[in-house]
Design brief:
With 121 residues, this protein is α+β, with helices and mostly antiparallel strands. The protein contains three helices and three strands, in the order βαβααβ. Helices cover 39% and strands 19% of the residues. 8% of the residues are buried.
């Protein structure tokens, strides 16, 4: 999914096509699918949804668990984590999560069509 891909749709009510490798490929498919109902097709770039671990949410959940589970109600646990430390954790956790998704075939193949432009059919 590293190469730039494109998808097309006729209007906001129609589903987008499967990803294509070029705008010309999108136009060709749309012209074949059009039964004369549409004068234009919208073509944009494909942006896949990745599904990542949100480190801020994870830390907040851990803090909530510690607060709830300790007799002393430790309120400041992980309060001093720096931006750099969060970034380090983010990279490490998402690297492992990506490997796990791939190994167990949980990779998302959903996408949005971004920056669509109208083309005449």
């Amino acid at each position: 999914m590293n190469e730039k891909q494109y998808a097309w749709y006729f209007d906001n009510l129609s589903a987008s096509s499967e990803p294509c490798n070029s705008i010309d490929e999108c136009l060709k498919e749309a012209r074949q699918e059009n039964n004369g109902e549409y004068e234009k097709v919208f073509i944009g770039t494909v942006e896949y949804i990745e599904g990542k671990i949100d480190v801020d949410v994870l830390i907040e959940n851990i803090q909530d668990d510690v607060y709830r589970d300790t007799e002393d109600n430790i309120e400041d646990y992980l309060e001093d984590v720096t931006y750099e430390e969060k970034e380090e954790l983010n990279l490490l956790l998402n690297e492992v999560f990506d490997k796990w998704k791939k190994k167990n075939q949980y990779e998302l193949d959903f996408y949005f069509v971004k920056d669509a432009k109208a083309y005449n059919l």
